[in-house]
Amino acid sequence: MKLTSRSVSLVPIMATALAAALGAVLVVSAPANAATTLGAAAAQSGRYFGTAVAAGRLSDQTYVNILNTEFNMVTAENEMKWDATEPNRGQFNYSGGDRILNQAVGNGSRVRGHALLWHQQEPGWARSMEGSSLRQAMINHVTQVATHYRGKIYAWDVVNEAFADGGSGGRRDSNLQRTGNDWIEAAFRAARAADPAAKLCYNDYNTDGINPKSTGIYNMVRDFKARGVPIDCVGFQSHLTNNAPSDYRANLQRFADLGVEVQITELDIAGSNQANAYRDVTNACMAIRACTGITVWGIRDTDSWRTGENPLLFTGSGAKKPAYNAVLDALNAGGPGPTTTTTTTSNNPGPGGCTASVSLNQWNDGFVASVKVTAGSSALRGWRVTATLSNGTVTSSWSSNRSGNSGAVTFTNVDYNGSVPAGGSTEFGFQGTGSGAGLNPSCTAT
Ligand code: G3I
Fold first, then answer.
1. Closest residue CA from atom 13 of ligand 1
2. 111 - beta bridge partners?
3. In total, how many domains does the chain have?
4. Half-sphere exposure (CA, 13 Å, Cβ side) for 47?
5. Which of 124, 171, 117, 116 has the alpha carbon at shortest distance from 146?
6. Where is the GH10 domain (predicted)?
7. What is the model's pTM?
8. Which domain does 79 fall in, by range?
9. 213-264 pLDDT tens trace
10. Is 118 inside any structural domain?
11. Are residues 278 and 352 in the same domain?
C-alpha cells in the first residue's frame, strides 16, 4: 500500500482495530511481509547480507544463481589481495578483482574490498623486503589499489590480521610490523586520501569474544579515534565451530560504543550446532544498530576454504540448509539498523569564517556525531564549534578540545587540525547517550 499523508493518519486506527480483532494471533505470527532472500531480509533494517566470491566460480550457473538471488554485498575471496593485484612491483593486475566487482555491480550489489595489507598472500617480491623500502612499497600499494577502485568500494579491509593470537594483546610479528608500529595508521591515512568515500575497516579473527587479542584491537581503535586516525569500522571474521562465544554481542557492542561500525566479515560455522550458532550470530548483529551487515565466507559447503567441515548455508548441490532458515528468520525478526541524518548550519562563510556540518548516527539510546569544519574564502588558523544537546550527554570526543557535555557544548581545534586552507575542511567527532537530534552546530574562526 502506498502511504499518503491522509492514509498515514489512519494507520494507527486501522492497526489498533486489527490488533483488537486478531488478539494474540498478532503476537505469535511471523511478519506477513517477511522477506524470502537473505539480502532482502537484511535490507529491511538497512543492513546488507554478503558472501565471499571466487572469480573462478563465476562460470558455475548454480553458484551464480544463488549469488544473484540471495546476496547484496560481495567480497573478493582472493582477487583483491596484494599477491593478486601487484604480482610484480609496480605492475598492477585488476582482472580478477574487476571481474568480481563488475558482476556484483551488474547485479545491484555493493562490494567490500579485501584486503589492502596482510602479512599473508604478500607477493614474493614484497616478502623479501623490509624497512623503509617495504614501507614505501606497501603504502604505494594501498594508494594504487584504493585509487583504482575509488568510489566503487563500500568498505575496505585496510589492514587484515595484524594482531597476535594468545594472551599478549600485541601485534603479530611480520615484515610489515617491523617497518614500525605506525604502519597501520599510515595505511589508513593513505587509504582515506585515495578513496575518501570508502569506509575503512580493521579486520581480524579470534576476536569474536572479549579476549586479549580483541582487547588489543579495541585499544588501538580507541587510540585512533582519540587521535583522529581515520577508521570507520571493525570486521569480525567469525570463523566459528559449534558456538559463538557467550560474550559475542557484548564484544561487538563495546566496539560500537567507540563510534565505529561493526561488520561480521567472514562468517562460517562448523559443527552440529550450526543452525543455532548462525541464529545467535545474526541476532547479535541485529541487536546492535552499528552492526551494518554480515558476510559469509562462501556460498556452498563445497566452495568453503574449510574443506570437509560444511560450514556454510548451502549444500554442495545448492540446497538451503537449516542454518539458512535460521539466518533468514533472524534477519526478518531483526531490530533497527543505523540511521544517519545530516544537518548543516552555515555561518560566517565569508573571509575568515567557517561552516560546520554534522553527520549523525543515532540508535535507541546513543549516537555518534561526525562534524566537518570547512573554511570560508580565507584559511583558518583555529576554529570553535558550538553544538546544542537538549536531550543527550556527550561521553567522549576526538580530534578536538571540549568544554561541557550537555546543553551548549563547545569544541575547539587541537594542535594538528587548527590550520585549514581556504575552502578546505577537517573533521572531529563525539559520541553520547540519549539523543543527538537538533545539534545545529555553528562555527567561528579564532
Ligand atoms: O591461485 C593459485 C593457483 O594458481 C594454484 O593453482 C592453486 C594451487 O593450490 O593455488 C591457488 O591459490 C590459492 C588461493 O587460495 C586461490 O584458490 C592458494 O594456494 C590458497 O592458499 C588460497 O587460500 C585462500 C586463503 O585465504 C589464503 O590464505 C582461501 O581461498 C581464502 O578463503 C582465505 O581467506 C582468508 C581471508 O582472506 C582472511 N581471513 C581468513 C580466511 C581463511 O583463511
1. 78
2. 74
3. 2
4. 32
5. 116
6. 32-330
7. 0.78
8. 38-334
9. 999 999 999 999 999 999 999 999 999 999 999 999 999 999 999 999 999 9
10. yes
11. no
**How many angstroms from the chain centroid is the CA of residue 383?**
30
Give catalytic status of residue 161 as yes or no: no
Last residue of some domain: 286, 317, 334?
334
CATH number reported for the structural domain that contains residue 420 in this entry: 2.60.40.290
Does the residue 382 lie in any domain?
Answer: yes
**CATH value at residue 326:** 3.20.20.80
Distance CA 241, CA 267 (A): 11
**Distance, CA 315 to ligand 1 centroid (Å)?**
21
Asked if 179 and 101 sit in the same domain, the reply is yes
**Which entry of 185, 266, 309, 427 is annotated as an active-site residue?**
266
Give the Cβ contact number of residue 283 at 10 Å: 20
Q: How far is CA 69 from CA 45, 51, 63, in A?
A: 18, 12, 10
Answer whether residue 28 is part of any domain. no
Q: What residue type is assigned to position 357 of the chain?
A: S
**Where among 334, 367, 393 does a domain terminate?**
334
C-beta of 305 in contact with ligand 1 (< 6 A): yes
- Residue 91 pLDDT: 98
Note whether residue 166 is domain-resident: yes
- What's CA 113's distance to the chain center, in Å? 11
Same domain flag for 250 and 149 = yes
Q: Which amino acid is at 116?
A: L
**Cα 327 to the chain's mean position, in Å?**
20
Atom of ligand 1 nearest to the CA of 56: 17
pLDDT score, position 335? 64
Does the Cβ of 263 fall within 6 Å of ligand 1?
no
Which residues are CB-contacts of 316 (< 8 A; sequence separation ≥ 6)?
Answer: 300, 301, 302
DSSP tag of 249: H
Phi, psi dihedrals of residue 283, rounded to the nearest 5°:
-60, -40
